[in-house]
């Protein structure tokens, strides 16, 4: 996992950046936009730096909340309509396409 930049804060996540960070599988998923990358069919919700983000996996992680995982992959920017009815705002989320992971 040395090809990935270590990050410790959500503010360091930038679309297109290849990063690695420690996160915890979320016990309660919130509402999020979902945009499955090709060949990534498993979705998990992880808590990182006090913020929940969507993580896409090629295979389902063999872990249960609130287990901690080291994630490495590419940060994605996902855009969609606002969740508020009648709003024309665009909602933007940062998510991660997990290329490698390890349970801790």
Spatial arrangement of strands, main beta sheet: 2-3-4-6-5
Tell me, briefly, the overall form.
globular
Average of pLDDT: 94
Briefly note the CATH topology name: OB fold (Dihydrolipoamide Acetyltransferase, E2P)
Number of domains: 1
What Rg, in angstroms, do the CA atoms define? 13 Å
Distance between the termini: 14 Å
Walkthrough of the structure:
It is a single chain. This protein has strands at 5-6, 18-25, 42-48, 51-57, 68-81, 90-103. The chain is mostly beta strands and 104 residues long. The protein has one domain (5-103): OB fold (Dihydrolipoamide Acetyltransferase, E2P) (Beta Barrel), CATH 2.40.50.140. The protein has a five-stranded mixed beta barrel. A hairpin with an 8-residue loop joins strand 5 and strand 6 (90-103). The radius of gyration is 13 Å and the shape is globular.
